[in-house]
Amino acid sequence: MNALKIIIVITTILYLSKIECSPERRRHSDSFQITTVPNEFIVQFYGKYFADIRKNYLQTKLSSLNISNWAWTVVTRQNFGTSFPSDFDIVRIVVEQATSTASILQAIESHPAVKAVVPQRSARRLLTSYDNATCTYHIRQPHGAVRNKKPSRARQVTSKLHADVLWNLGITGKGIKVAIFDTGLTKNHPHFRNVKERTNWTNEKSLDDGVGLSHGTFVAGVIASSEECLGFAPDAELHIYKVFTKSQVSYTSWFLDAFNYAIYRKVNILNLSIGGPDFMDSPFVEKVLELSANNIIMISSAGNDGPLYGTLNNPGDQGDVIGVGGINFENKIARFSSRGMTTWELPFGYGRLGLDIVTYGSQVEGSDVHKGCRRLSGTSVSSPVVAGAAALLLSGAMHKMHLINPASLKQILIEGAEKLPNYNMFEQGQGKLCLLKSMQVLLSYKPKISLIPASLDFTSNYMWPYSSQPLYYGSSVVIVNVTILNGISLTSRIVDSPKWIPDINNFGQYLNISTATPRILWPWTGWMTVYIAINKNGENHEGISKGNVSLLIESILLGTNETHLSEVNFPLTIKVTPKPPRNKRVLWDQYHSLRYPPGYIPRDDLKIKTDPLDWRADHIHTNFRDLYIHLRNVGYYIDVLREPYTCFNASEYGTLLIIDPEEEFFNEEISTLESYVYDNGLSVIVFADWYNITVMKKIRFFDENTRQWWIPDTGGANIPAVNDLLHPFGIALGDFVGEGHFKLGDHSMYYASGTTMIKIPHNPDDIVVGANLNDQGASIITNSKAATKESKVFLPILGLFQTKSEDRQRNKPDMASNLIAEKTYGVKVKSNASDSNSAGRIAIYGDSNCLDSTHLEKACYWLLLTFLDFTMNSHISGLLKTLNHKPDLKDKDQLDLPVRIPGSNLEKFSKVLNAKSNGLTQKCEHFEWLRAASDADYHKHVPVSTWTTSDTNEHQNNLIKEIAKTLDNQKYNNNTNLNIKTTIIFLISLSLIIIVLFVIFVKKYYVSSNFGNKSIN
């Protein structure tokens, strides 16, 4: 055995000695399925009225228009809130005709007291549980208890966050009202000593939590249990709102009634361990804003759709809500925890962080339904950890309660938070909750205005994705959305426009800056969008450019009529590089991506029935993040196109990347792209997805509770629209839905749910590759199992095509398929000077699932790189040349083109179709760059000095001293543990070195001895 083998064996033994695998208890994870209730609509009023007044408003209006009472009815709500005034009603339309329904709704909306009419929605919590095991990696140390016994207090979440320090100081949550919106709580549960009220907002009779899931009991236990598995604030006043049934079903109207009652009860903190992707449920979103305006602090879970990015749930992603993600007890981001960014702003803008803070949410202990404890995992666990911690914090500073609001508490929590190493802002928000540090911040807090993020730094890995690609002259404008937290007042206004102050000493003059802000900030929060580009002067600069965006905000001081001006600064540190060559620049088409909400855009992988909606935005920083990282690692620069094809300069880019498009195309876009490819040498790569009208009708989304059918508005991709776009190049895709495993050379491939080519150009040098696929569409339509190997069909799925000017005229007749009539928007096409006389190239693949991280089975990043080598450099892979089957597949182009589905709702939310129907002109982005200012041009911050609190009382001083002492001890213990680990690692390394030297010495001695013996012989 040589020295290397010995080292490997020893290292393996040492490595295994640090691993302890122990079975975890059953883990639970929850997600939400939100659907529209048929024929039920929420009528929102501008004010709150009693039920008879609201009904009289509706009846009077509808009767005046000769609409009979039998055609509609007000749904009776039988809950605790019916005796109070309300600002909404539920109207059920009895008639089935769409025209009658529309006329009734239009009549209701015309009443001056009616604010809006929107569909009623239902939510079903999809809670799953499964057994698993984890391996924890640490240097072996004594354990006081094994997993299946009562765990040590050191593993309880209250101990991890040192809640006992505050308990020992007499801080226990007393005086704080906490509302828990969940599945209820069993009466007289032994863990709780201060349940003030239990109310039921569902259609069930029982106030108790359901046996089995007991989610509401668990959440209440994390917040306020006083026995066994301890909660953070055992003396907090609990208000239990049952808003989910035993079958985990709820309705928007139940939440609205319960929210109204919470406002009436003047609760301080509201925990909402639910969420979903539907940020367009306007009554719900607006009611959350009203809660914040009434100084109720909502804390909500981020969602359990990680590790994918762009999966934050509403309402946790709202600026006025504290959104909470999950970590495990090793301070690692939990795999299930949803990541940012928010996707509300796409495709025209860019998402916010959305996620505010993370805390323990994996294998956390909480109360079981009747007695005892259980463990759960999920961000619905992390949320009550923060809610309980917040209640504990506030009870320790009752003299500062007049300064507490949704913005100030968020400021206190995030200022006390600790950044986790190796995680970016979309993963951890502002960091890990630190209870004691936040207590310190609270005790010294004075009202102020702050920003999230506080700055933008392209040199910090925490700032991914901004840190992943430098800016350069000619790149697409970078957007950062900043959340403004105003701890001073409920309503404020922005004075004048923000100012741009470049740092001349650090090349700030090379930056162009534009901003967008609302004039009014409400409630407690607002936003600022900053647009960043490199100007002509910075074309050849490589390095860092710095500057500062300053914002002046006028607030009304709490409890007074005085106004106060606050200056808020947003520092910029931007990494700049010279413009890369054209063959390294890729343009990602975001404009033609659609997702849920608002429409039913179906899943791209048809076999994943548990995830019926495509809602992750198809952005390079969400579900295509892994692809983006792969492209950046090999040296490509990726810009995002947020506008039509008529708005970019084709001579700047080598390839336009169109992945999974669901949107239609303007006629101007089609003709412009034709010109770009033939005249300007732009190349195009398309990764499509399945499309088949019969399959679309078959996968209607059915909700058993509401009995609502949703028919997709298009397929996985909008193939009829793609065919319109590709028509000038003689290429078309069909409606065969293929699925199957196959190999391309040594590469294993999986075609999840893809389309195939039915029309290809006739140039002999082109490449067309086929594969044997199952007819997945037929299997879905007939409800049969997957086809056998013998029944697979060999069809073209991949093509590389060099366009030629002589083919251009041949493809001119009959522009496209069957839809969109003439669309004239007056968009002027840019005239581009081509840097090459050759026409561009087209690469096609029929399935994008191999690039999408959502349900990735076999990644095909290598294939995209092969395509880019072809489109950028005209190089055809030897592998694809070998697999070329074009002569065998040329007869497949006689099939009919797919048509658009009749009765589609696509026009309701399509940017393209909406522009046509409303006679709008589609405009390109235009930015008004801010004039460079200096520090002297702007107001200086005037500190707030009018708030007076008893900050010098003896009790507060004792609190500060005790907390500081605990934090110092904690820091000392951490350093001690680090020193011990360092010492152990040093000793292990030293031992390995000694062993290696010994082995080498023995080996040399052995060789020397043998050589000597041979010489003697």
UniProtKB/TrEMBL annotation:
Q: What class of enzyme is it?
A: hydrolase
Q: Keyword Cytoplasm, does the record have it?
A: no
Could you mention a single GO BP entry for this protein?
Answer: proteolysis
Q: Looking at the UniProt record for this protein, which Gene Ontology cellular component terms does it annotate, in alphabetical order?
A: endoplasmic reticulum membrane; Golgi membrane
User: Catalysed reaction per UniProt?
Assistant: Processes precursors containing basic and hydrophobic/aliphatic residues at P4 and P2, respectively, with a relatively relaxed acceptance of amino acids at P1 and P3
Give start-end of the signal peptide.
1-21
**Which residues are named in the active-site annotation?**
D182, H215, S380
InterPro entries in the record: MBTP1_N, MBTPS1_3rd, MBTPS1_4th, Peptidase_S8/S53_dom, Peptidase_S8/S53_dom_sf, Peptidase_S8_His-AS, Peptidase_S8_Ser-AS, Peptidase_S8_subtilisin-like
Q: Tell me where it mainly resides.
A: endoplasmic reticulum
According to the entry, every stretch annotated as the MBTPS1 third domain falls at 452-579
The record's subcellular location field reads:
Endoplasmic reticulum membrane; Golgi apparatus membrane
Q: Which residues form the MBTPS1 fourth domain?
A: 580-875
Membrane protein topology class: Single-pass type I membrane protein; Single-pass membrane protein
Instruction: Tell me which SUPFAM superfamilies the record gives.
Output: Subtilisin-like
Q: What is its EC number?
A: 3.4.21.112
Please provide, alphabetically and separated by semicolons, the GO molecular function terms listed in this UniProt record. Answer: serine-type endopeptidase activity
The Membrane-bound transcription factor site-1 protease-like N-terminal domain is annotated at 37-121
Instruction: Indicate what this protein is called per its UniProt record.
Output: Membrane-bound transcription factor site-1 protease
